[in-house]
Amino acid sequence: xxxxxxxxxxxxxxxxxxxxxxxxxxxxxxxxxxxxxxxxxxxxxxxxxxxxxxxxxxxxxxxxxxxxxxxxxxxxxxxxxxxxxxxxxxxxxxxxxxxxxxxxxxxxxxxxxxxxxxxxxxxxxxxxxxxxxxxxxxxxxxxxxxxxxxxxxxxxxxxxxxxxxxxxxxxxxxxxxxxxxxxxxxxxxxxxxxxxxxxxxxxxxxxxxxxxxxxxxxxxxxxxxxxxxxxxxxxxxxxxxxxxxxxxxxxxxxxxxxxxxxxxxxxxxxxxxxxxxxxxxxxxxxxxxxxxxxxxxxxxxxxxxxxxxxxxxxxxxxxxxxxxxxxxxxxxxxxxxxxxxxxxxxxxxxxxxxxxxxxxxxxxxxxxxxxxxxxxxxxxxxxxxxxxxxxxxxxxxxxxxxxxxxxxxxxxxxxxxxxxxxxxxxxxxxxxxxxxxxxxxxxxxxxxxxxxxxxxxxxxxxxxxxxxxxxxxxxxxxxxxxx
Length: 483
Prior knowledge:
- Helices cover 69% and strands 2% of the residues.
- By secondary structure, it is mostly helical.
- A two-stranded antiparallel sheet has the order 1-2.
- The longest helix is centred in the first third of the chain and has 43 residues, at 32-74.
- The chain is globular, with a radius of gyration of 22 Å.
């Protein structure tokens, strides 16, 4: 009997509620909450549009979270949405859900890693201490060997921490998330116009042609302009809040009651909404010329760091540096955990090769799946920061699909077990509608709404991912059906 246990080790129950909250919150708040004020939020939505979009996004995520809280006790296994879908809709549908969830989670690891070089450059940009060795350009951004080596080191270190044990990873995640939560700067509320953002592409083109005089001529106005401003950020809310849904991925490792899941999710979502909105507002409020910085910069400007410098001087820069470092590292930790547990679950049911389903006998973690995640994530630093905006879209569509199937599975499970309340049923139906709405906003160009749907590069990446999924499905179908 002892021999059999060693040959088939299982995941260990070693996560407490604080560990799980830290994983969820750390995944929600990654590099995007600090970099996207200059890249997406302020130009596309402004201060008002972003605040409204984030509040609406948080509300929708809370609605969807009720379905997760209901499903976790019903199917308390690693895999989360993949497991729910498999139990309710069968293997092929579950594979589709799982494949897109891998994209939603795993793309966030290399996205976070590429911000590490930005932190160093921002705190000591004049020294260019990471700009050494060979370099090349992708999407107009210079990728240097020094930045790659630093990111590689971080990715490998935190991957190893996950392999050594989820409890160790949970402790590190808790510390990082706690530091992040208290690292919020003070701000003035001047200079936030244009509050609904502006047409970034048109402004940059005008500046290139020498026709740019003021951002006011490109500011969003009118009902359609304001709607575009709000929807541009609301459409990527699944990416912004992806993280609370990583909680079910570690369900087999909880050492507490599943009844606490809903509260943990809600608190993580509320904290996430506050940090996104605060960071964006701070960046605009402290910078009188933030639109000009966006238009004139050759790459994505780190507005929040510049804002902290103007508000608090060097201590402010250090504070933001600590906060974004915590966000980046906690995001890497959390998405490593979620990705590896999802792949472990899919492998255990024959959807992926058995190699990914092996659990380390000593540490009780899916070691092979983690090693694979590390290797794939090392591609991020090679691609560079500017190209990774496309991964935001990939993560958003993957998360939306996961939300959709979770809400649908909740309705099926309620009918199967003949339990649940009318309130939960309404929440599941509303969550289902919003999840479908997110997918439409992301994929379908809507006349009059600019900056909402995918760009060309994102569509290409999506088609490539679908093609790879089809190939992988065909190669594993026989083993999957045998299971």
